[in-house]
């Protein structure tokens, strides 16, 4: 039985400034995000985690650094960077104010028909979902009972959730994924179950402890 634990990165400077950061480099955590990252030391705590996989975006590494530096991470058998879980490529939209982007003709299709949207100079929601699910399936197919902590981004986690809920990609905007929240998916002999979405609880209450 494999478990995928998705952790959205903590509150960032871009979140604070209402900017769509995308893959723009150098975006750090806000003061609020730094506090969230330190709170994760106890929120993850002794929860069952065997491997940690990070989006290559800096704010994801910063989110989990305090826990990785704590006594609770001593049992981790693997830590790596996974491109499959990186932020969406928003292309020409990257680094722009959301207040400006909301006035774009593309905004409404993004909310109502994302399956038909590809960002100018970037990727489509379908492309992002395919690469994310490819990464999930690779981890789920590993032999043995493993719990994977994956630090990623809101849109990616929402796209993954709707896939395993067997819902249409056009429904993914109905899901809320807050900063530093957990979304947990578990594979068993009977298929893949979504245990929780957007949880602000301690991880041990969802997956148990060692």
Structural class determined from secondary elements: alpha/beta
Principal-axis shape equals globular
CATH evolutionary superfamily: Phosphoglycerate mutase-like
Percentage beta strand = 15-25%
> Could you list the spans in which at least 5 consecutive residues all have pLDDT below 50?
none
- What is the C-alpha radius of gyration, as a whole number of Å? 17 Å
In oligomeric terms, what are we looking at?
Answer: single chain
Gap between N and C termini: 15 Å
> How many DSSP H or I helices?
8
Biggest sheet details: 6 strands, mixed
Architecture (CATH level 2) name: 3-Layer(aba) Sandwich
CATH topology: Rossmann fold
Biggest β-sheet: strands ordered side by side in the sheet: 4-3-6-1-7-8
Q: What is the element layout, followed by pairings?
A:
Elements: E1 2-8, H1 13-17, E2 19-20, H2 31-44, E3 51-54, H3 58-68, E4 78-81, E5 96-97, H4 98-101, H5 107-112, H6 125-140, E6 147-152, H7 154-164, E7 182-188, E8 191-199, H8 204-207
Parallel strand pairs: 1-6, 3-4, 3-6
Antiparallel strand pairs: 1-7, 2-5, 7-8
Helix pairs in contact: 2-3, 6-7
């Amino acid at each position: 039985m494999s478990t995928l634990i998705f952790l959205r990165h903590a509150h960032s400077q871009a979140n604070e400034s209402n900017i769509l950061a995308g893959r723009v480099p150098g975006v750090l955590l806000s003061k609020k995000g730094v506090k969230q990252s330190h709170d994760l030391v106890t929120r993850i705590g002794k929860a069952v985690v065997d491997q940690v996989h990070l989006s290559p975006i800096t704010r994801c590494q910063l989110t989990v650094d305090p826990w990785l530096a704590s006594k609770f991470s001593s049992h981790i058998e693997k830590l790596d960077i996974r491109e499959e879980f990186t932020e969406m490529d928003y292309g020409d939209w990257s680094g722009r104010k959301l207040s400006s982007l909301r006035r774009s003709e593309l905004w409404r299709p993004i909310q109502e028909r994302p399956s038909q949207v590809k960002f100018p100079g970037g990727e489509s929601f379908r492309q992002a979902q395919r690469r994310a699910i490819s990464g999930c399936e690779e981890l789920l197919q590993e032999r043995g009972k493993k719990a994977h902590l994956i630090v990623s981004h809101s849109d990616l986690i929402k796209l993954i959730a709707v896939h395993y809920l067997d819902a249409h990609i056009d429904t993914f905007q109905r899901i809320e994924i807050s900063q530093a929240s957990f979304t947990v998916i578990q594979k068993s002999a009977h298929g893949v179950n979504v245990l929780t979405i957007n949880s602000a609880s301690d991880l041990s209450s969802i997956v148990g402890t060692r």
